[in-house]
Amino acid sequence: MMSDRLDFYLKEANIHIERLDDVLERLKNIYTLDSNKFENLNSYEKDMLDTLAFRFAKLQDLIGSKIFREFLKEMGYIVEEKTFFEILKEIEKEGIIDIDSWDEFRKIRNFLSHEYPYSFEDRIEAINYLIEKTPMLVEVVRKIENKVKRRRD
Fold it and tell me: What is the SS3 assignment for 1?
């Protein structure tokens, strides 16, 4: 039986996923973003990019801070007093995501979450990364849901 906490967190994750899917659908006409396209975005498209970055960050944070630990508990792992890196090693063993990919997600999320004075091209590259990699982040949630469902069945 899925824990109440894990169930709650997965429901929250699916809210973020629904919004991400909606935003990606609305932005499909600007893929792949370049400096010319970026300069010509209307306010609606800029708001959608903000929503994309916000929802990606929220989903990535939820997965890393709550879902991974609850998932591992559900799968029978002992997670108390383990570092996040130790948790990631177990997540990688379960075939959910590799540590390097997770680290890239974290770096891009941090980059976009802060208004650092990075170059215009760096910001565009980070946005394109989000657009390209959001399905991979969604797949992390789907893999967890499927493994938990198989365990319950």
Answer: coil
For residues 129-148, average pLDDT: 94
HSE-CB at 129 with a 13 A cutoff on CA atoms is 19
Domain count, the chain: 1
Tokens of 92: 């990688």
Residue 46 pLDDT > 50: yes
Segments forming the whole domain that contains residue 23 = 4-152
pTM greater than 0.85 (yes/no)? yes
The rounded distance, in Å, linking the Cα atoms of 150 and 2 is: 11
Closest to 138 measured CA to CA, from 84, 89, 97: 97
Query: What's the full length of the chain, in residues?
Result: 153
User: Token pair for residue 77?
Assistant: 């792992």
Cα distance between residue 30 and residue 41, in whole Å:
9
Distance CA 20, CA 93 (A): 27
